[in-house]
Amino acid sequence: MYELFLIFSFKLFNNVLTFRLKLKPMKTGKIFSQIKIKGCKPFLLVFLLFSVEGYSQNAKEISLSVYPGFTLVNFEKALGYSDDYMEDWSEVHLCAALRGFLALGKPVQFGAELAWQRLYYAYYIVPYGPSPVYREFNVSTVSLLVLGRYSFNNFFSVGGAGIHSFNDGIAPSLCLEAGYMINILENLKIPVSFRINPVFGSGTPTPFSVGAGLCFFLK
User: Fold this and answer.
1) pLDDT exceeds cutoff 90 at 74
2) What CATH number is associated with residue 213?
3) How distant, in Å, are the alpha carbons of 65, 98, 149 from that of 186?
4) Which domain holds residue 193?
C-alpha cells in the first residue's frame, strides 16, 4: 500500500506540473521563479524508487491532515500591482496534505508529502484610460516535499524541503513543524501540530498554520 502511495504521488504531481506548465503565463508576467521540471522529474523518480526498494521491509505510516491558518505575503511584489489599487484581499490559508513515513520505531524517520495549498486572494481595480482594468488572483499550489522527522515519546518535529507548483511556474520551499501524536488505537493516531511553510517565490508567501488529521500505521 505504501508503494502504491509513492507511485500515485509521483504520477499525480507529474501530471499536475505538466498541466500547469502548459498554461499561458499571466499578463502581468512571470510572477514566480520558474525552474525547468525536466531536471526535477528524474530526481523525484529516483527518490520514490529508492524509497520503495530500500525500505520495503520497514514499517510504514500514512497520514492525511488539514492545516488552516494565514499567509504572510508581500502582495505588491508577488502580483506586480500597487496596493493602492487593491479592492479586496484575503490571507486565509488552507492546506490538505497526504504524507508517508518509513522506518517507524526509530527516533529519526524519513518520508514525503504531497499537498494542495490555498495561499491568498487579491482583487484589483487598476485605472487604465477611460475604463479600469479588473484583476483577480486566487493563488493556490500543489507541493511535493521531502521530509525528515524526529520523534520523542509522542512529541515530534519535522523539517523538509521541496517545490510548489504555481499556474505559471514552480518555486522552492521549506517546511518546519512541531506537534504531538494522540493515541487512539494501536495502528491509529491523531497528529496535531503547528507549521511554517515559506515559499521562495515573488513576495515570499509564508503560511502559518495549525493542523490535525488521521495517521495510519502499516506493518
Assistant:
1) yes
2) 2.40.160.20
3) 19, 20, 20
4) 2-218
